[in-house]
Amino acid sequence: MEVATEEGLNKEGRRAGPVLAKNSSQAIISPSLAESRELADRVLAGDRRGVARLISLIEDDSPEACPALALLYPHTGRAHVVGVTGAPGTGKSTLVGQLARESRQRGLTVGIVAVDPSSPFSGGAILGDRIRMQELTGDPGVFIRSMATRGSLGGLSWATGDAIKVLDAFGRDIIYVETVGVGQDEVEIAATAHTTIVVEAPGLGDDIQAIKAGILEIADILVVNKADQEGAERTVAALQLMLELNHQPQGWQPPIIKTVAVEGKGIDALSREISRHRDYLQVSGRASLLRQHLAEEELFNLIRKTLVARIMDKLDRAELDQLIRDIADRRLDPHTAANKLIAQILE
Amino acid sequence: MPDGKRIRVLIAKPGLDGHDRGAKVVARALRDAGMEVIYTGLRQTPEMIAEAALQEDVDVVGLSILSGAHMTLFPRIMKLLKDKGLEGTLVFAGGIIPDEDVPALKEMGIRAIYGPGTPTGDIVNFLRENVK
Hints:
The complex is a heterodimer.
Chain A: H1 6-14, H2 33-44, H3 48-59, H4 65-72, E1 80-86, H5 92-105, E2 110-116, E3 125-127, E4 142-148, H6 160-170, E5 174-178, H7 185-190, E6 195-200, H8 215-218, E7 221-224, H9 232-245, E8 256-258, H10 267-284, H11 286-314, H12 317-328, H13 334-346
Parallel strand pairs in A: 1-5, 1-6, 2-4, 2-5, 6-7, 7-8
Chain B: E1 8-14, H1 21-32, E2 36-44, H2 46-56, E3 60-65, H3 70-83, E4 90-95, H4 102-108, E5 110-114, H5 120-130
Parallel strand pairs in B: 1-2, 1-3, 3-4, 4-5
Helix pairs in contact in B: 1-5, 2-3
C-alpha cells in the first residue's frame, strides 16, 4: 500500500483533479484511497494541518475529498453547530469571536467557519473575518477557517457543510458558522445549523418593515448587537412585536438578547441561551427530527449538485449554444429546451 | 458550483507598524485577479501569522512591513512556518525594505520583495507563475 508523504499530498492534493471535465472523453480518475484514508486518520488524530488540507481538498472538489468524508462521517454528529447570520455591519464576526472566547472559558473546544462572498466578476474574495478574532489565533483550542462562497448564492459556500463535518470529526465541541449576511441566506444556514442566531443592529432600519420577514421562521435566538447605540430599544420592541404576532403556543420561544460585542457585554447571557436551546433540542426530542431534516436537505443538495455537474459534462457544447441561441431568438421556449436536453441525457 | 482550485493568500502585517494602505491595495488586486485573500490586518505576531497560514491552508503568505523590523521578524516567521510543516508555502514581502537586506531575506526563503510603487500586476503574475 503506497504511503502518501507530506510532499506527495502537497503536489497531488493541491492540484484539483479533472473531476468532470467538459466534453472530455477520459474516464473519471479513481482517487487514491490511501491518500483519503491518511487524511481521515490525521483528522481523527487531531492533526490541524490535516484538517486544513482536507477542507481545501473539499473546496477544490478534489477526488480525495469524498472518500475521506465517507470515512469521517461515522465520527460526526457530536458537535453543536451554531449558525450566526444577519446583515453586514451588525457585528457578526466580533460576536462570534466573543462567543468563541466564552466557550473556551467553559473548557469547550471551538471551530469557526467564517464565510465571505466571492466576487461574481473575478471569482476572488477578501476574507476578512479573522481580523475580529485576533486573540483566538494563538489558542490551539480554536480552529478558524475562512471560506469564500465560490458562486454559491445562499450565504454559505457549498463546501461549508462538509467543512463543518471535518471540524466535528476533529473533535470540536461547538462550531460557529458565520454567514455572508445578505439575501436569502438565512434559509441555507437553517438547513445546516442546530441553533440559528439572527443578529440585528440599531440604525440599519429599526422599524418593523425593515426587519426581514423570514427571520422569525429560522431564528432560534435573536440578538440586538451594538445595543449601546441610539435606537436599540426600538429594535428590541419591533422584534418583540413580531414575535407576539407570530406567537406559537408550544415549543421554543426565541429570546431576544442585547449585546455590545466589542465590549463583551451580553455574551454570557447569549451563551446560556445557546446551551439552553441545545438542551431543549435533546429533551424535547426535536434533535432527532432536526437531524432528519438536515440529512434530507443535505441529500437533496448533493443530488442537485452532482446531477447538474454530470449533465453539464455530457452536454455537447455546440448543441447547447444552438439551443441558447434558439431561446434568445424566441424560436424555442426555455422549458421545452430544458426538457429536450434532459430527455436526451436520460436516454 | 465548484470551480476548482483557487490560489489562497494570507496578507499580514507583522509587528507594530500601522500603515496598511499598501497591504489593502495588494489584497484587492489579488482578489480582482481571482485569488482568495485572507486579510489578517495589523499587529500580527509571527506565531499568529504561522498559525493562520496553517489553519487557512494558504498557498502564499504576503508580509507587509514598513517599520524596519523585518530582519528580526521575518526569520521567526520563516522558522515557525517550517516548524508547522509549511515550508512549501510561497512567502513574499512588501513595504519599506532596503536593497541591502534583500539578499539575506532571499536566503531565508522569501521568494520576492516588492517596494512601494510596484505595479500590482507584477505580484499577480509572479504568484500565478510560481504557485503550484
